[in-house]
Amino acid sequence: MNIVLLGYMGSGKSAVGLQLAIGMGREFVDLDLLIEEQLGQSISEIFDLKGAVYFRKKESEILREVLNSKNGAVIALGGGTPIYGDNLKWIKDKKNTLSVYLKIAIEPLVQRLWVERHNRPLIAGISSLEALEEFVRKHLFERAYVYQQADLQIDVSDLSVEQAALAVQNIFQKEQGII
Ligand code: S3P
After folding, report:
1. Does any ligand 1 atom lie closer than 6 A to the CB of residue 15?
2. Is the CB of 9 inside a 6 Å radius of any atom of ligand 1?
3. Which of 15, 67, 69, 119 is the most exposed, fewest CB within 10 Å of its CB?
4. Cβ of 43 below 6 Å from ligand 1
5. Tens digit of pLDDT for each residue in 1-22?
6. Distance between CA 113 and CA 42 in Å, rounded?
């Protein structure tokens, strides 16, 4: 089974995914990194130079390649991946793929994103913490119903990366009847 991690920007998909893959001895695939490698540009450069529509098209294509070729991997999506096109349906229809939503409360999320906002084109231009919070509240509200369609969900608001990775491993193994 592949484990697909989804959730809002800053929820820890990449860090938790890497830790989970190490802990379970699995391959780790970070979709954003793969897009950057395949296109030879950073996500910010792709948005700036080619636009959001181009990015979403490539994101979809590369997601399909990953889902069709991997088995037993931990796959961290981008925050927008399940939102666009048929991506969520693709993920849900794959029999060898279990999706986990990393849910996080607004306060820790905004704190984290404020520090990291420069690498994220959707929020890089926001110039105050208050404006970022307002944006994130609205945006997460719009997206949450999609994230909630994941097979499983974990609230990672109060968890360290290591704790969150263990929590995902635990819920996955329970779901699989392994423990
Ligand atoms: C996006 C999230 C980013 C990246 C791109 C768009 C989004 O990934 O794919 O900037 O639409 O939420 P992270 O969730 O890894 O930051």
Report:
1. no
2. yes
3. 69
4. yes
5. 999 999 999 999 999 999 999 9
6. 18
Q: Are 15 and 161 in contact (CB under 8 A)?
A: yes
Nearest residue CA, atom 4 of ligand 1? Answer: 78
Helices 43-50 & 52-69 angle (0-180, nearest 10): 130
DSSP conformation class of 81: G
Pairing, β 74-76 against β 152-155:
unpaired
How far is it between the farthest Cα atoms of the chain? 48
- Residues 26-77: tens digit of each pLDDT: 999 999 999 999 999 999 999 999 999 999 999 999 999 999 999 999 999 9
Q: What is the residue whose two structure tokens read 């990775």? A: 165
Q: What are phi and psi of 77, to 5 degrees?
A: -85, 170
* Ligand 1 pocket check for 78: Cβ under 6 Å: yes
Atom of ligand 1 nearest to the CA of 80: 11
Question: How do the domains of the chain map onto residue ranges?
Answer: 2-175
- Which three-class secondary structure state does DSSP give residue 38? helix
At the second CATH level, the architecture of 2-175 is 3-Layer(aba) Sandwich (3.40)
Candidates 4, 9, 18, 156: which one to mutate for ligand 1, based on the most atoms within 8 Å of Cβ? 9
